[in-house]
Write a structure and sequence with these properties.
By secondary structure, the chain is an all-alpha fold. It is 77% helix and 0% strand. The N terminus and C terminus are likely disordered.
């Protein structure tokens, strides 16, 4: 264990990993009155924190940067082939759960068993099988990427893709059944176990493929728990009409997620095709949004979707999302500004000197908070207006590619990040305009505009003053 620095020993890490669930669980007694929104945000934070701690432990261990790159590439591949359909199917389930044409008896009763949940599980499982078969059939294409050539456990990655995605339904069963404390307890224990079984083998000197085995094991455990919840809360009834209804609403969201989320994956593919795994690791560590912002924003958006499923709840839901987003702005904008000042120091301290290059990319991505903290898409998805979300995503990807190709000539790789920040905001403006002019939902009804504009201008000005040199990096 000589590769660990003096600040974090292997023994300390093992103690944290082993006792994490025990440390977190007693505090859950105080969360009886927590809201669904807050619980989903907490689970998102727990997920991110787990992966962050795994990365930190790897950088403090004797593992090489190339080995870390193999692990990051594994997560990258798993995300690239599944993120869009998982998001689309989950987001479309949330408004359908309380309001759909197939089942006239709605699942509003907490004690009722829901056929919607079982059919959603079947869809997630079917897409997982398709993703697995796709990876097997096109394995040679993956091997054409420079960074992937040296990975000798690709089949394990494909198995992880097959097993991990249906387990996401666990979190949303707790959300839809209004069990926020149970959701947090599940997250604390689940991610604590994941941290343990992924890192300990690598700390003990086993190859990086044992970390992937750890991901597979935790995926199996989550599937077992999902089976328990489905038996308790779901009616095991196959319904092709509901599946068609689910796909009709979900397909535009799947394509929209693919388009809007493809920018980071296209960038990653370019890096992987050009550089080795070590260089990919440096890029991957930097090309991230402020994690707390995206996790809490997505948690708020997904948790609010069921509230927009009927027109009767509209005004209350608009007021709620305005107030909750305002609280997020007061928290997340100041934190993002602080990160602008200290990103370089944070990266060197948490990881090591090798990853200082990653901080430069990360600082540009902090500006994405400007687009993340407005939620016109939540209203549209909740009202089942998914086609306009798809159209906006198509517009986003086209403009993003065009602007990236233009700015990269002047600013290098940083120009791509700048283009992403601009186009994400343009997409939100299009959706806000649609809500205003087509649905007569004014921005004032769900966006705290004064607070939003103040913080947006402030972070842009501070970014230009502090970090103008990044624009001239290349």
């Amino acid at each position: 264990m000589q590769g660990f620095n003096n600040t974090v020993s292997a023994g300390q890490i093992l103690l944290i990993v082993i006792y994490l669930p025990e440390i977190l669980y007693p505090g859950l007694a105080f969360l009886k009155n927590i809201s669904n929104v807050a619980s989903l945000q907490i689970i998102q934070i727990l997920r991110f924190t787990t992966f962050l701690l795994i990365s930190i432990i790897f950088t403090k261990s004797p593992v090489s940067v190339a080995d870390i790159g193999y692990y990051e590439l594994s997560l990258f591949i798993a995300g690239a082939v599944s993120f869009f359909w998982v998001n689309g199917l989950i987001q479309s389930l949330l408004p359908l759960y309380h309001s759909n044409k197939t089942f006239r008896v709605l699942s509003v009763n907490k004690k009722s068993k829901s056929p919607e949940l079982f059919n959603a599980f079947l869809l997630l499982s079917a897409f997982s099988i398709l993703a697995f078969l796709f990876c097997i059939l096109f394995q040679r294409a993956f091997n054409l990427l420079e960074g992937v050539k040296e990975i000798n456990f690709m089949v394990l990655i494909f198995v992880y893709i097959l097993l991990s995605n249906p387990g996401h339904l666990v979190e949303y069963i707790y959300l839809l059944k209004n069990r926020p404390a149970n959701l947090i307890a599940y997250g604390a224990i689940s991610f604590g176990v994941q941290l343990l079984i992924v890192t300990v083998p690598v700390i003990m000197g086993y190859p990086m493929k044992f970390a992937i085995w750890g991901l597979i094991i935790i995926s199996v455990l989550r599937l077992i728990w999902l089976a328990v919840l489905l038996r308790k809360h779901a009616r095991l009834k196959l319904s092709l009409p509901f599946i068609r209804e689910h796909m009709s609403l979900g397909l535009p969201l799947i394509v929209s997620s693919l388009l809007s989320g493809s920018a980071q994956y296209v960038d990653g593919i370019i890096i992987t095709a050009t550089y080795d795994a070590a260089s990919f690791a440096l890029f991957r560590f930097g090309a991230k949004e402020f994690p707390l912002a995206i996790l809490m924003a997505n948690g708020l958006s997904n948790a609010m979707l069921p509230e927009f499923s009927t027109r009767e709840k509209m005004q209350d839901a608009l007021g709620a999302i305005k107030e909750k987003s305002k609280r997020l702005m007061h928290l997340l904008f100041p934190l993002s500004i602080l990160l602008l000042f200290f990103s370089k120091i944070i990266y060197i301290t948490i990881f090591n000197e090798t990853f200082s290059r990653s901080a430069d990319v990360f600082m540009v991505y902090l500006l994405l908070i400007i687009s993340r903290l407005v939620f016109p898409q939540t209203i549209l998805i909740g009202l089942k207006k998914t086609k306009i979300v798809l159209i906006a995503s198509i517009l986003e990807i086209v403009l993003n590619v065009a602007l990236s190709l233009y700015l990269i000539r002047f600013y290098g790789i940083v120009g791509v990040a700048v283009a992403t920040s601009i186009i994400f905001l343009v997409e939100k403006i299009v959706l806000v305009a649609y809500n205003h002019f087509k649905l007569s939902i004014s921005p004032w009804q769900y966006i705290p505009l004064k607070v939003y504009f103040f913080y947006s201008v402030l972070i842009i000005v501070i970014f230009l003053l502090i970090d103008h040199r990044i624009i001239h990096l290349h």
